[in-house]
Amino acid sequence: MSGFLGKLVLLVLVIVGVWLVFRAATRSAVPGKAKPRANRAGRQAGAETIEDMRACARCGTYVPAQGGQACGRGDCPLLPRV
Predict the structure, then answer these.
(1) What is the pTM of this model?
(2) pLDDT at 41
(3) What count of Cα atoms within 13 Å lies in the side-chain half-sphere of residue 58?
(4) Strands 53-55 and 62-64, how do they pair?
(5) Does 59 fall in a domain?
(6) Phi-psi region for residue 10, left (φ > 0), alpha (ψ -120 to 50) or beta?
(7) How many CB atoms lie within 10 A of CB 71?
(8) Domain, as residue range, for 2
(9) Any domain includes 4
(10) What SS3 string covers 2-67?
């Protein structure tokens, strides 16, 4: 019976080992899953400021509320007047 029990324990160890290797490989390959490091100012690396957005009155495309650029349509209300 000890031969069967030894093989069973070995099988469980192999399955757990494969699972751990697979989990470590997929964790490093998936972007955005790793925790970003904080820089000296205490902010997260790559953190950007969040802007309020508003919908274009003509086409509904969301543009920044402050200093938004034109959406590209000829009748865009954000186009500079000449």
Answers:
(1) 0.35
(2) 60
(3) 10
(4) antiparallel
(5) no
(6) alpha
(7) 18
(8) 1-31
(9) yes
(10) HHHHHHHHHHHHHHHHHHHHHHHHHHHHCCCCCCCCECCCCCECCCCCCCCEEECCCCCCEEECCC
